[in-house]
Design brief:
Blueprint (H helix, E strand, L loop, with lengths): L1 H7 L1 H8 L5 H7 L8 E5 L5 H8 L3 E6 L2 H11 L4 E2 L11 E6 L8 H12 L2 E12 L4 E4 L2 E4 L3 H8 L4 E10 L9 E9 L1
Parallel strand pairs: 1-2, 1-4, 2-3, 4-5
Antiparallel strand pairs: 5-9, 6-7, 8-9
Amino acid sequence: MSIDYYQQQAEPFYHGTINVDMSPLYQRFLPYVPKGGSIVDAGCGSGRDSLYFTNLGFKVLAFDASPALVNLAEQHTGLAISQCRFEQFTPIEPVDAIWACASLLHVPRVELNKVMAHLAAQLKPNGVFYCSFKYGQDEVSRDGRHFTNVDEAGLNELIKDLPLSIIEHWQTGDLRQGREHERWLNVLLRKA
């Protein structure tokens, strides 16, 4: 369902997200990634974050489920972006970090644990996993997109059987203009 939305809304989504300043989130994530390490941009959207990490010298593997967004992200970054779903992505070798910014929230709650387990399996030991969700406890469908909202209790439930521990979590407002009132749960996890 959400893939169809991004297929139809790829251009407006791209233009609405490409210039958002993500530096407050990068500053919390990147200290955990080895210099020149490998980062998977899971659900890369416009490719904004992939390009930022690449320009800093990280090895970036990026994917998105929407063919239209893959095309736009490739044009923006010059990288080869894979077109696949979370559970289909498997790198050739384990990676240092996964960046899943505002992407896993589209996975239905009933599938989320399995998807996160699959992604965690792609990490090296001590690898770091950033993800973010709209803050809450419910699942909603809006304008053709599915959202699984997560709060601290939901996060603990989500990872209790996974080889992941919480480094830190924090709330932020939405970084897009005019949406500052929307709350997000940001999470940094470490693989055992």
